[in-house]
Write the structure tokens for this entry.
Amino acid sequence: MRKLTLPLDENTIRSLHVGDPVLLSGVMLTGRDTAHTYFLDELLKDPIPESEVEVGKAVRRILHGGAIYHCGPVVKKENETWTFVAAGPTTSIREEPYEADVIKHFGVRVVIGKGGMGKKTLAACQEHGAIYLHAIGGAATLIARSVTQVESVYKLEFGVPEALWRIRVEDFPGVVTMDSHGKSIHEDIRAASQRALEGLLAG
């Protein structure tokens, strides 16, 4: 079990391989479909729209060497303090059109979700030094226990699931299923399943 603390450098990422279990601590950002389109449509503009400058600076600070978690949390607010009630991963493949650019332009080291991602993201992991961590689907309340603090929320107007939640985590569990060496457990399973299917059809 590797215990890692965000932010992470490239050498640490390159030392990880598919199958490695990880406990991640530090500050990360949640982001789903709306967040990814926002990153590309607004924060990569030159210049960034004046209305988005402060959020853009915050996002870059968090994501550089950091982690983005594909998660639409269930939250509650008491006395102006937010807490995560459930924090399960959402399906990552929806972000495949965007993730390579997010990794490249923001310096992301860790992408977290469920179900894996495709060849474009895998190539970006290999080129820029990033990994994909598979979080435990169906364990939303368990994962929420690793969220020790909701430090801030950006773009709440997107709605609670799609907002950018800045969270501090301790021993967030995951498994490396796509590494910076071009290996993907998800691709291996897909290829093996395809071979098995072809064998069945041929028989």
Remarks:
- The helical segments are 10-14, 33-43, 53-63, 96-106, 119-128, 140-144, 185-202.
- The longest helix spans residues 185-202.
- The longest strand covers residues 164-178.
